Amino acid sequence: MLLGVNIDHITVLREARKVADPDPLDALGICKRAGADQITIHLREDRRHIQDADAINIIELSSLPVNLECAIASEMIDIACKLKPHRVTLVPEKREEVTTEGGLAVSGEQPKLKDAIRRLQKAEIEVSLFIDPTLEAVKCSENLGVEWIEFHTGKYANIYAMLYTNLSKTHHSIPELELSRKILKQMLDDELRNLRLLSCDAMERGLRVAAGHGLNMQNVQDIVEIETIEELNIGQSIIARSVFTGLEQAILDMKAKLIR
Ligand code: PXP
């Protein structure tokens, strides 16, 4: 399974102090050495993390394909067409959000999306849509003629965290918590089944399927088992672990989890 490493989180640290370090460019060679398949970056409209100069340099210097995430705003599409990354993943953006909190409203944004996709494909950039795992979003993506979709796995990751992180084992004997654990387990199974069915459906419609958001060393296993998902884009958890293990080891460890 392919791994895109979202190196934005390196610039989260840099921008917290508005200094020069750590520089995401220094991650390119390390990602390549550790076996990453793709570099993913998100140039936000408010430039709170990755800056224009980062995007320019990363796209120019990376020997791995670069997946540029951006909003459908025409300014961002202009930049993407100029920089010509390997792929553009269109994502929803809200100024107040801490991270990308949901998938694109694919049916509600049809004209804007159509225009953005047409311009990107004309510039020979493959296009992916970051969508919630719903049948409607898959069908709309097919109709829009994109090459890829990326399923937002935030809901799956949240349920996983509630089930295995917040409900500590010391609460084993409390019946109410056992009940909620049972409900959460059912929700997790439902979400996984939904992702499995939809990624299979999407593949049959000729779409290539990626997934990402909130995935980490603990929760990634069940997603890896969905064979129709070709690629995962993972950022926060890899960069967080790299503080302790170094970036190369953190990527190697994640890559080992992605072996099928
Ligand atoms: N894929 C997309 C489209 C995203 O917007 C993000 C978050 O930046 C990710 C993957 C990676 O999410 P995380 O940082 O939670 O691993």
Q: Supply the CATH architecture.
A: Alpha-Beta Barrel
* Global mean pLDDT: 94
> Which regions have little confidence, pLDDT < 50, spanning 5+ residues?
none
Total discrete domains: 1
Question: What structural category arises from helix and sheet content?
Answer: alpha/beta
Whole-angstrom Rg: 18 Å
Instruction: Indicate the proportion of strand residues.
Output: 15-25%
Any ligands, ions or cofactors bound here, and which?
pyridoxine-5'-phosphate
What does this structure look like?
There is one protein chain. The protein is α/β, with parallel strands linked by helices and 260 residues long. It has a single domain, classed as Alpha-Beta Barrel (TIM Barrel), CATH 3.20.20.70. It has eleven helices and eight strands. Strands 1-2-3-4-5-6-7-8 form an eight-stranded parallel barrel, surrounded by eight helices. Helix 7 runs antiparallel to helix 8 and helix 10 crosses helix 11. The longest helix is centred in the C-terminal third of the chain and has 30 residues, at 175-204. The termini are close together. The model has no long low-confidence stretch (mean pLDDT 94). The structure holds pyridoxine-5'-phosphate (PXP). Pyridoxine-5'-phosphate is lined by residues 6, 8, 42, 69, 89, 91, 99-100, 130, 150, 212-215, 233-237.
